[in-house]
Amino acid sequence: MIEVNQFEEVTQIKMSRVIDGVPIYWVSAYLVDGLLVDTGCSYTAEELAAYLNGRNLDMVVNAHFHEDHIGCNYLIKDRFNVDIYAHPESIPLIGAKTFLYPYQETVWGYPVPTEVKPIPDVIRTEHFGYAVIETPGHSVGHVALLEQEKGWCFSGDIFSRETLKFIRPEENMGETIQSIKRLLDFKTKRLVLFTSVGKIIEDGRSALVKCIDYLEDLSAKAKNLKSKGRTVEEIVQDLFGGEHTFAQLTNGQYTTKNLVCSVLEMEEMAVSNFSLSSNRREELQV
Predict the structure, then answer these.
(1) Which SS3 state, helix, strand or coil, does residue 227 take?
(2) Is the pTM of the predicted complex or chain greater than 0.85?
(3) pLDDT tens, residue by residue, 143-198
(4) Alpha carbons 173 and 175: distance in angstroms, whole number
(5) Do residues 255 and 246 make contact, with C-beta atoms less than 8 angstroms apart?
(6) Alpha-carbon separation of residue 233 from 126, 174, 237, 243, 265 (angstroms)
(7) Phi, psi (degrees; rounded to nearest 5) at 5
(8) Angle at Cα 182 formed by Cα 179 and Cα 186, nearest 5°?
(9) pLDDT score, position 268
(10) What separation in angstroms does the CA of 143 have from each of 93, 187, 218?
């Protein structure tokens, strides 16, 4: 199932597998000026390819390698003969068969391994230019695209909501904060977030700041409880009232315990290890 929405020159393509007539989880791709950001999951690949037929499509960027971002890669390469780009750390993962937990197989399905190219520092279309920003935290090999004149930020999964309640075990909240700060470093007149979960957030700068504040406050509270001898399980109970129901639904992958463990490991850093130098930022001006 797909739904199409328009925001300025950007077309949002929301996609979900349907079971018993009900969409079970929406993911989004974005099409603008011949650039497609992400390709959804394998269950909606045929629908997305049909939608793209006859439309302007010059290139594709995968924000990262997860199965809900690369599911139509193989059909797009086969039918449209366009290049697909991703971060170098994502390339071997996109090109290999992956392991999925049962919930992932049910919701998104297995993507077909596809060869993609290393993404350049700047993506240019006929009318726009996008700085390619490394944004690890949700996963390795994650990138965001920022059109500075328009203030459009295709943020992938580096931001999904202001107050996270659960994460996967490999997610790193310290890196996530530094990646978000990296986006905020760009002094655009506005910052509109086009998220993979389907939210288009017009006041993206405020949302990102609130997310950082929440995670830093959560880290401080968790560390304070740990200093008093509380276990991780007890901290989960104290701060969240217990484990989230998603833990059971996702075979123990998306859990509040993972979130607490990650914020306990966060270090206080006045300057991000991932912050762009002024020279580097000038190189990416588009």
Answers:
(1) helix
(2) yes
(3) 999 999 999 999 999 999 999 999 999 999 999 999 999 999 999 999 999 999 99
(4) 5
(5) yes
(6) 53, 20, 6, 8, 15
(7) -130, 155
(8) 150
(9) 56
(10) 15, 18, 25
